[in-house]
Amino acid sequence: MFEVKNRPQGSIMDALEAILTRRSVREYTDRPVAPETAKSLLAAAMQAPFSGSEPPWHFIAIDDPDILARIPAVSPYAKIRPPPPLAILVCADLSHPEDRDISVQGCAAATQNILLAAHALGLGAVWTAIYPDPDRVLGFANLFSLPDSVLPFALVTLGHPAARPPPVDRYREDRVHQNAW
């Protein structure tokens, strides 16, 4: 198992600690997420690696309670009660010359950055899958009036955790191969 250092309240954890202790959080308090915190999460997302000359992503920050309440109708994985105070819809811009798979990889990296940044800032978050399920893709595209060249990839719900699951050591030696299978 890994060791988590004791940190003073309010300090930001280091990258390895964030990776090793992050868990999906699906229960939030009703406390809102500050706009500057949402901006920090989006800035972290945009630091993700991507292929090509243009980033493959667009984001929709959602804090309108009426819109947040409508999301579970298009995604069974986003049925969080009460609705989270914030969600970020990560979308792939397919208008660039790179192919869909490369754009999706960049959006996956951006989504992971949101999750890690949220955890480092003391928030809870969960990645709810949209792509490649055609019904969810269509549902989110319609709900958010996305252009045809924009693919809804993932929805990250965010908030101040009502409960935080403990870290789990997922390292498995049987999944590691040295130099060949």
Produce a short descriptive summary:
InterPro entries: Nitroreductase, Nitroreductase-like, Nitroreductase/BluB. This protein has helices at residues 15-21, 35-45, 65-70, 100-120, 134-143, and strands at 57-62, 86-93, 124-129, 150-159.
Q: Could you walk me through the main structural features you see in this protein, from its secondary elements to its overall organization?
A:
The chain has 181 residues and is of the alpha+beta class. It has a single domain (35-163), classed as NADH Oxidase (3-Layer(aba) Sandwich). The protein contains five helices and four strands, in the order ααβαβαβαβ. The chain has helices spanning 15-21, 35-45, 65-70, 100-120, 134-143; strands at 57-62, 86-93, 124-129, 150-159. A four-stranded antiparallel beta sheet has the order 1-2-4-3, sandwiched between helices. The longest helix has 21 residues, at 100-120. The protein is globular, with a radius of gyration of 17 Å.
Features:
17% strand, 181 residues, 4-stranded antiparallel β-sheet, 4 strands, single chain, 5 helices, alpha+beta, NADH Oxidase
Q: Strand portion, in percent?
A: 15-25%
Q: How many distinct folded domains? A: 1
Largest beta sheet: what is the strand line-up? 1-2-4-3
Structural class category: alpha+beta
What general form does the structure show?
globular
Residue stretches low in confidence (pLDDT < 50, at least 5 long) are 1-5
CATH level 1 name = Alpha Beta
SS summary, helix count: 5
Strand tally? 4
Largest sheet: 4 strands, antiparallel
Task: State the oligomer.
Answer: single chain
The radius of gyration computed from the alpha-carbon positions, rounded to a whole number of angstroms, is: 17 Å
The CATH homologous superfamily name equals NADH Oxidase
Q: What order do the helices and strands follow?
A: HHEHEHEHE
Q: Could you name the CATH topology?
A: NADH Oxidase
Mean pLDDT: 92
CATH architecture: 3-Layer(aba) Sandwich
Q: Termini distance?
A: 25 Å
